Structures are given as structure tokens and as C-alpha cells.
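Possible regression after last week's pipeline update?

I re-ran a chain I had predicted before the update to compare outputs. Posting the input and the new output here so someone can diff against the archived version. Not blocking, just want to make sure nothing changed silently.
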Amino acid sequence: MPNTPSSQPRSRVSQRIGSIAESATLAVDAKAKALKAAGRPVIGFGAGEPDFPTPDYIVEAAVEAARDPKNHRYSPAAGLPELRQAIAEKTLRDSGFEIEPAQVLVTNGGKQAVYNTFAALLDPGDEVIVPTPYWTTYPESIRLAGGVPVDVFAGPEQGYKVTVEQLDAAVTERTKVLSFVSPSNPTGAVYTPEETAAIGRWAHDRGLWVVTDEIYEHLTYDSVPFTSIATAVPELADQVIVLNGVAKTYAMTGWRVGWMAGPVDIIKAATNLQSHATSNVANVSQRAALAAVSGPLDAVDQMKTAFDRRRKAMVAGLNEVPGFSCPTPAGAFYAYVDVRGALGDAAGRGHQTSAELAGHILEEAEVAVVPGEAFGPSGYLRLSYALGDEDLAEGIGRIQKLLS
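New output (post-update):
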């Protein structure tokens, strides 16, 4: 009997891919750049992208690598052996976590490390506890892997940091993974060594995997220490995946080099996936990353000094806006502003959501910010202070003028 066409038209895009939400941070950044290209003087606080150039010694390593024919060929899908070795050494130096090169997979930026990790860990229906506000990519990567993100919200009243009690209340028989990020994107929150250890011990006792993103490890302020959960709770070693990359620390967002580090069986599985998805990361970028992670942190310290100055200026300026309440972030380069007092009829502006308020700020003040809906509940705005001092002052001034 011949096949009969279905009476229902089939979607041209698969349901799995069609359900993915666009990256809100990149969407805001793209819109700001498009408006700027059209001649509008837009200032963008959307993307988490340092305004500094990549340090010269890293660029020179890339130029030299581009001239070497050996870098014109395929290389191992897991990464250049010398880079994997350097990442293992850097992880011990910066995180105090001892790993072997075989426990490292070099990826095309941090986002591929996130996707590879959840794809390697999750079966359909497995749940991942995601402290909220979260980076917009985590839940999408979890869903793509067949998992179910479970949000656990921590507001400004608790410093945007979840508690063990909150995490425990979210556990079900399907829970397999805890996502842990400190310093945090989008809030800039940094968990104390004691808080980190308590959460790590809880995850270990519950038999959960921990996926920890440490890409902002060098960006903490006011003598606040960075604590790796893998080091705080050594017994987690066989159930922890550490995500990292060169983008933020070394102003290398466009070079696209990240990595995941963890137990050999998970790294091998993720390497198999990557061998079919993208194969090796561009060799020239890997050589640049090798120079970065093996080199000094002098340039990093200089950038951190500038970020710290901008952090203080941004927080002070935002707290002058009626209805805004901006706690001082202890890490990363984002301010996460509570704007609930600027919403609704009581504020006299009529905006019911932070998405509406962000749209108003972009259209009227020509300043791009990311609404809280991208990271969890409405009622908040994220602004990156990884941009020049003059643009920062001008942008905050425009918001003050518009909303005051």
C-alpha cells in the first residue's frame, strides 16, 4: 500500500532545535550593534566582552603559529597535547585541583564545553539543579541533551546565592547534576569558601555530579577569594566537571577556546562527540591559548584594576536611579540590578516587566541592557561593565536622565 502523506504539515525545523531560545545576551548585543551601524549612538551593556585587546604576547604566538605548516593540518580532536598539559598545570596553579592531560578536552569556546558536558552526562528526563539567576545558555544546553533544568532562585536578599536547604528541597529521584557557578554570570556573586564547601559536601553525599564553571576565577574584588568546589571538597573528584576558557581572563572572546576537565570516562565520551561535531579547535587559536595559560598574569591584573574601577562607578550610578537597587558584585564584570521598584503603575512609568523596561531604555536612551527574563524571573537588569570608562559614564547618565 503506498505511503499516504500526513494531513498535518510537517515543520521544516525539528522540534528539538526549533524550541531553543535565542541567546538573549547575544541578541541584545546584535541589536545594539545594528543600531550603531545605522548611525544611532547606542551604548551596549549587553555582552560580557572585555574592551581590551588580547595581550601582545598571545597575538604574537598566534602569528608565529599561522606561519608554521604543522598548524595547517588536522590535530587531535581532544586538543593539542601540549595545550592539554598546560591546562592541567594551570588548573593546579589557579584552582588547586590536580588533573592529568587525559582529563582535559579543548573545545570551541566555553559554550561547547557546556554542551559537551551535559550531552555526556544526561539521559532523557534527567534533572539538573540550576541556581537562578543563571547564564542563559545553561538551560538550553540541558534541554538539548534531553535533560530537565530545575530552577532554584536566590534573590538579592540572600546575595543571589542559593543555600543547601534550597538545593535539598529541589532534589527528586531524577536529579543527576548540580550546576555551580562562582563567580557568577549574571549576578557577580561569589560563594565563600565555607558556602562552597557546604554545597560540595551536600552534592557528594547526595551522589550528584557537579558541573562547575570557573571562567571568571581571576575576577574577584575587595580581597574576596575564589574557591574551586573541586578543591574545597576533594572527595568530589570523580563526580565533578570543571569548565573554563581563555575568553574572559585574557580578553580572547573571539579566539574560541574553552575546555572541560573531569573523569577520564566522561572526557573520552565528550571527545567522541566532538570528533563528529567539530573535530579539533583551530590550531592557531590553540597555540594562542597555550601562550595565554602558560604565560604571566600581569595583563590580567591590569584589566582587573580597570574592571574594579568601573564596577564601583556603575553600582554608584545605578543606585541613583529611582526604583533601582544594585548590590555590589564581588566578581566577574556584571551588575545585576533589582528594578522591581521601577516597574508597574506605582513607578509612574507603566512598564510591567524588566523586558519592557529594557526595550524602553534602548529605544529612548539608546542604551542596551539585558532583561532579567534572560536569566530567570522578571524584575532585574544585567549590565556588563567590561566596556570603556567614558561609554560607561555616558550610558549610566542616559539611564539616569531617562528614568529620573
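Follow-up from reviewer: compared with the archived run. The longest helix spans residues 298-318. Marking as no regression found.
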